Amino acid sequence: MTSQYSIIIKNMSGQSMSFYAFQKQAAFANGGSVPAILSSSLACGNLAPNASSGAQLDFSFDVQNYVGAKSTATASSQVTFNASLSMVSAKTASSSAAAVQPIDLTASTPGQTTGNSSVLSIDPLGLSAAIYQPGLPAGAFGIQVPSFTPVPMPQLYCGCAAINQDGSITLSSFIAPLPNSQVNCTPTAIFYVGTGNHPVGQTVTYATAQAAECNFTTGYRMVTVQYNSDGSFTAKGG
Prior knowledge:
Helix content: under 10%
Number of domains: 1
Structural class: mainly beta
Mean pLDDT: 90
Number of helices: 1
Low-confidence stretches: 74-93
Shape: globular
Strand content: over 45%
Largest sheet: 6 strands, antiparallel
């Protein structure tokens, strides 16, 4: 079983609150450019006051790094559904495909090889099993992106991924890559907890100033986050 990082959240305020988690944005390089980076909610839940309920939330994330890709496409300009006695028309219908593979980060030790790269395919969408690619920066993994024609739809994204409990895939920190390019991605095992109702997979504004930092780079596997009555957070590793 894959080991996990765990975030325990306790609501010490006097009212029920919604909390969500997101990962520190990875560093990306794509064909020599610095692309716009997007973030997604990785966990979300509503939590009653701890004093009256004793309740807590547990957000868990795999220690294993994953490379992921997602494509969204218009399935049809008009789709008609037969709902017994009535006909319902939809102007547009969309579908999406996602792919994920476990991947290692480039070792800092010279000469040590790791499965630090994956080859992206477009039609159909897929990612190869991790292979070794020399020359990548320490702590990074690579994505080899093929040629494609970028248009408003479909959109292609790739970057860090998480596998949800139901088996679905969420891109935690990701970009829209350039065609026929090399993407280098350097993830960090730091997560943030903020207040708000953002379902898993929803793209969120990356804002850390009012969020609790859960830093797993120092060796902790569990961090306890307390939401205080004054609206501040307290986070403690253990």
